[in-house]
Design brief:
This protein has 216 residues and is α/β, with parallel strands linked by helices. It has helices spanning 68-77, 98-114, 141-150, 164-172, 205-213, and strands at 39-42, 82-87, 121-125, 157-161, 176-180, 200-202. α1 packs parallel to α5 (205-213). It is globular and about 40 Å long.
């Protein structure tokens, strides 16, 4: 997987209020249809793989969630490129090397390809929260890099995550943010209120792709 060029361009979208129909609702809902996104950006843990209590240290600990490989195949066959944006702070804490995490990601991409899908790039932040970097979500440098890799504008894409800060990052990058319940970090109460208002909520990545492409 060749590295993609990096860009320093930034996007911004104010998130002063909920304008997605969820304000005041007792629950969030599954969107009936989704805009015609040209690219999809994904969180890793809780979206692609089972959310560990700590971190994924080896490929053997990386377990794809049900339906993920099929969902990625469908996106690829539909001509919708996919990139992954993930925070992996245990690198910055010195608990694992970046090379070890990159090896997990290479095997992840290989497994996706073996099932007919494709991941164009994995953009990880290796820093600890206290490092104050520009690539750790909800900062948006990793989004800038991913969009440059895909050759798309923020308005062409959406981000799918499992925690309120994923929505905050998506909106800061200028795109819609969707949440899945498959991640252990999901907090439905939090995402009903600004600035964490998601554009939609689904059970998992497979259901998101059903909404985007139509159920097979």
């Amino acid at each position: 997987m060749p590295p993609c060029a990096h860009s320093q361009r930034c996007w911004a979208r104010p998130a002063s209020k909920c304008d997605n129909g969820f304000e005041g609702d007792s629950t969030l809902s599954r969107p009936d249809t989704l805009p015609g996104f040209r690219g999809v950006l994904l969180d890793r843990d809780g979206v692609l793989n089972d959310k560990p209590k700590g971190f994924v240290y080896t490929w053997e600990e990386f377990l794809f969630l049900p339906g993920v490989l099929e969902a990625l195949r469908r996106l690829h066959e539909a001509g919708i490129p996919v990139a992954v944006i993930t925070n992996q702070s245990f690198i910055g804490r010195g608990w694992i090397s970046r090379d070890e995490v990159e090896l997990i990601h290479q095997k992840m991409c290989d497994a996706v390809a073996e099932h007919g899908g494709r991941i164009e790039g994995v953009f990880l932040c290796p820093h600890a929260p206290e490092d104050g970097c520009r690539c750790r979500k909800p900062a948006i440098l990793s989004f800038v890099r991913a969009l440059t890799c895909l050759g798309l504008e923020a308005s062409d894409c959406c981000y799918v995550g499992d925690r309120p800060t994923d929505v905050l990052a998506a909106h800061a990058a200028g795109m819609e943010g969707y949440l899945v319940r498959s991640g252990a970090a999901f907090d439905e109460a939090a995402v009903r209120n600004p600035p964490y208002c998601a554009e939609g909520l689904v059970g998992d990545l497979a259901e998101f792709v059903d909404c985007l492409l139509g159920a097979e």
